Amino acid sequence: QVQLQESGPGLVKPSQTLSLTCTVSGGSVSNSAYYWSWIRQPAGGGLEWIGRVHTSGDTKYIPSLKSRVTISLDTSKNQFSLRLSSVTAADTAVYYCARWFPGSHSRWFDPWGQGTLVTVSS
Amino acid sequence: DIQLTQSPSFLSASVGDRVTITCRASQGISSNLVWYQQKPGKAPELLIYAASTLQSGVPSRFSGSGSGTEFSLTISSLQPEDFATYSCQQLNDYPVTFGQGTRLEIK
Questions:
Q1: What distance in Å separates the CA atoms of residue B10 and residue A44, rounded to the nearest whole number?
Q2: Nearest Cα to B38, choosing from A114, A17, A90?
Q3: Which member of B50, B96, B100 has the closest CB to residue A106?
Q4: How far apart are CA B62 and CA B90, in angstroms?
Q5: Is B89 in contact with A112 (Cβ distance < 8 A)?
Q6: B53, B91, B93, B102: best mutation site toward chain A, by most A Cβ within 10 Å?
Q7: Are strands A107-112 and A93-102 parallel, antiparallel or unpaired?
Q8: Does A106 contact B at CB distance below 8 Å?
Q9: How far is CA A104 from CA A90, B30, B32, B63, B93, in A?
Q10: Which residues 24-83 in chain A show a CB within 8 A of chain B?
């Protein structure tokens, strides 16, 4: 079964770039049936979708972060990554990666990684 | 952006109770509505997709209904393991959005 695992620094300084990687096992990021997505959740808050990437290279981002975010695929390592530049304390959150099935009649995010807490602080 | 408003935000109930959570979309999203369950310190888990289709392995006491702008998640008889936070998500249009979540606690 497909499993996802986030990795990356848990502490990032303000104005720097947050970089996270999601490693996929039991499946391939090259599978054209899926998108690969990042979502975040501040402490005590709701879920916020950040963006997604497809093996074709196509990407989509939430408009509020579009100027600062890049999501990319590394098919050789079966991973996808998130880069968020110019971070502030407002970017402190648990970051999740997830597989997205964008079917015509059924769409869902599953599975999700366990999540990784990123704190923005000097 | 499509806004999803869940009600209530907090729900206190007892084992064996029947509970319903509502998710209202700011514009029509057909049946492109998903429900997740999230326990403290854990990732969300898929419960229901396409508004009413139960994910494999999810107990039949969970059910979903609705289309357009009004959706609901019902748990027919609460079990101890059901006390968690439930969130709806729309996958009809970009950007993908989530409801604010409904926290279900034991009375």
A1: 13
A2: A114
A3: B50
A4: 19
A5: no
A6: B91
A7: antiparallel
A8: yes
A9: 35, 12, 9, 21, 12
A10: 37, 46-49, 60-63
Nearest to A8 by CA among A100, A120, A122, A90: A120
Exposed e or buried b per residue across B67-77, where buried means at least 16 C-beta atoms within 10 angstroms of its C-beta: eeeebbbebee
Model pLDDT, residue B107:
87
Tell me the two tokens of residue A96.
Answer: 């999740």
What count of Cα atoms within 13 Å lies in the side-chain half-sphere of residue B13? Answer: 24
**Chain B residues whose beta carbon lies within 8 Å of the beta carbon of residue A60:** 94-95
3-state class (DSSP) for residue B80:
helix
Q: For the segment A15-56, what is each residue's pLDDT rounded down to a tens digit?
A: 999 999 999 999 999 999 999 999 999 999 999 999 999 999
Interface test with B, best of A47, A58, A59, A117 (most B CBs within 10 A): A47
Element (H, E) at B70: strand B70-75
Longest dimension (CA), chain B: 38
B1-46 pLDDT, tens digit per residue, is 999 999 999 999 999 999 999 999 999 999 999 999 999 999 999 9
d(CA A105, CA A71): 26
| One-letter amino acid for residue B104 of the chain | L
Answer yes or no: do B95 and A110 touch at CB < 8 A. Answer: no
A36 neighbourhood in chain B, CB within 8 Å: none
